User: What shape does this take?
Amino acid sequence: MSDDAATDERPPGGVIDEPMSSALSKRYLAYALSTITSRALPDVRDGMKPVHRRLLYAMRELNLDPDGAYKKCARVVGDVIGKYHPHGDQSIYDALVRLAQDFNVRYPLIDGQGNFGNIDGDNAAAFRYTESRLTPAAMLLLDGLDEDAVDFRDTYDGENSEPVVLPAGFPNLLANGSSGIAVGMATSIPPHNAAEAIDAAILLLDQPEAGIDDLMKIVPGPDFPTGGVIVESTETIREAYVTGRGSIRLQARWEKEEVGRGVWRIVVTEIPYQVQKSKLIERLAELLEQKKLPLVEDVRDESTEDIRIVIEPKSRTVDPDMLMGSVFRQSDFETRFSVNMNVIDRNVPKVMGLKDMLRAFLDHRREVVVRRGRHRLEKIERRLEVLDGFLIAYLNIDEVIRIIRFEDDPKAELMKAFGLSEVQTDAILNMRLRSLRKLEEIEIKGEHAKLAAERETLVTMLMSPKKQWLEVRGQLARAREVFDPSTSLGRRRSDFGAGVEVDSDAVLDAMVAREPVTVVLSTMGWIRALKGHGQDLDKVRFKEGDELAFALECQTTDKVVLMSSGGRAFTFGADKLPGGRGAGEPIRLSVDLPEDEAIIAMLTPVEGAKRLLASTAGNGFLVPEAELVTQTRKGKVIMTPGAGDQLLVCTPAAGDHVAVIGDNRKLLIFPAAELPEMARGKGVRLQGFKDGGLADAIVFAEADGFAWADPARRRIGLPEWREWIGRRASSGRMAPKGFNRNGRFSG
Assistant: This one.
């Protein structure tokens, strides 16, 4: 603790008897409050922290106007340290540099000359080499300091004074945002488009009851210095503007550039806010080396003054959205900006929403307008008093000259003779002889009339809150001209779009060459993929005692689903299956298939297609084929047969009628609409049995008619099949003569 802080509480002996916990808590609280209010959090009125406010004020005192000459940053930093901000020179210079970087600040407040760093993360040159001056935006923030617009306070050493807050001619807090970490709290306010923020403030002036939805029609979201595409939903942004907390997802801006002959590449022209380009490129290089970007062949940085990052695809057949989706997922080409609009409002930290921040700014602007009006009125009153004295002197010029020439105390005599005040008398006595010409009298009368009219306007404004708000509105409209959206400074840089969402498996699948294969599964559970279609399966060799169970023609890009008798679905990638040489490999090496279960079907899922699942107990339902795809070794339970029951049938459901036959050779046909569509379950009763269970089931279309395949694979139709139509779960009738002896629809 410093000597000054302890003066009042230190006893004569110099020792303070105080519990350690109490001493620490008091001093830590003082430190925390100092950090919160004097370092980390911005003021809601001007959006500035003390160091930034002192920088701008010191530069103004040095007359570093936008139209003036630059001065060394070392001079600026020295003045700030010596007069206003007794901290390290590097921290102050860092703050100055940031205010000059157009990739860090949406509307730079300092115009820098020299090396002020770049978006790659390179540091600025030392302050003895760089120069700076204020920008027009900074002048808007400082406008009115000489007109008693804000309060001043003594500096840390008492030798100078500094403004408590800047007049802030535009909503700088929203326009440039802010970030900082205090003790126990932090702030993170995104930058916005200044013209939009001003328009929203004017809307609140015109319609004080306007809600957040009305404001968001003008301010749809942040506007970051480096551009990019905001891919957050309107609802999420609205929630952040209402509560003051949230997050906003931002992606790099990219485009597909055609090179010729079907070859293309991705060109990134804008990267997310506060992402260093050099580290971004390094990260992409690491991902390429680790083979975590399978769709990307190469990445190059071709940037000059503008961003240009080139991403070469692995193949021209790759989908650009899928490629960028994989890049967004694993790098800072996509980031999240945390929103925590924590500010200082009347010396108290407070999280505020968009409307509250705009209202606080407007209240501040009204106070500035009133104070500047009073200050101007006082100056006018003093000048009018002097002009009134001059006019009296002109009307009585001869007597005035006589008194001045012959009286011993002309000042007292003038005051007595014409009823002048001391100020008027001093002005007359200090008047030059050449001012006595007639033309000067005319000019004084003109100035008097002009100032009297201005005084009347100011008095009316100061007495009318409505006119005060009109003046605020007019000043905001004039400030908006500096940020005209038609200029490069004022145009919106961040657009809004839909995020590219890509499944990691889809990215890997995109790298698989599409080739025809025939998947072969043996009765003992050995699986392999033979190249091409139309294979002569009779010539396919198996291990001794093994034979063909299923064969499926598909593409290497397809998924292969195996259905087990236990009702489980297991999924394989056709491109990952062993080749046709040899016997393949056991499926149990890849999936956890119980020993007491067997594979009863093999299929390639088709989007929109359905399957009929039926168990030996005669229960069944329809399931979309897409629901059969799984990602785990354990598979996915689709049908849950009861004790002693198992899945028997997994057949395509491309029709409007279902035919079922039991072990008792009774056949039943009913509409497929009577079956429920489920993703998982036991199903409903298909057919009633007194003895035995279900032997087989198929789905067929009424237009095609009912038929079965005999052992020679010949199709045998049944013209009178409608005689077997009944209600689902009924027992049915005996199968027609000639039906397969095995009791199944396929011989």
User: Anything to note?
Assistant: The chain has a mean pLDDT of 90. The two ends are 97 Å apart (CA to CA).
